[in-house]
């Protein structure tokens, strides 16, 4: 079985590890689309703290991850699902409902986010202690 998930994974933290491990626990090969720096800039008007090469290397080094690729556009999910022959698309429940239109291609699963941790929160904490 093939599982696909997507994310920025900037300043990699325990919430990121939890969702990747839980995705892998569905059973099968886990492929991760890591959002490109350009995609992030277009969404958030700022570059990630860690660049796309480093973010891909960190995710690829995890025991639960089998394959990593660069996600160049949010609109290409259907193409990526087909290319990697995904049976499951897994996303955190902050994306609840947003990918239901892909459910004719694969099962779409939203897993609960890990509470009380986010990249934005980490950036704010680091800013405060500087
Ligand atoms: N996540 C989580 N718990 C947290 C923080 C993040 O479960 N406390 C999950 C998110 O729900 C997401 C994944 O970790 O499924 C990656 O999160 P982000 O790096 O914030 O990625 P995001 O910007 O949501 O992805 O196509 C989607 C894009 O790649 C953007």
UniProtKB/TrEMBL annotation:
Residues passing through the membrane, by range: none
Keywords: Nucleotidyltransferase, Transferase
Coiled coil regions in record: none
Classification via SUPFAM superfamilies: Nucleotidylyl transferase
Name of the protein in question: Glycerol-3-phosphate cytidylyltransferase
One Pfam family, short name: CTP_transf_like
Domain of life: Bacteria
Organism: Shewanella livingstonensis
Domain Cytidyltransferase-like: 4-124
GO molecular function, one term: nucleotidyltransferase activity
Organism taxonomic ancestry: Bacteria, Pseudomonadati, Pseudomonadota, Gammaproteobacteria, Alteromonadales
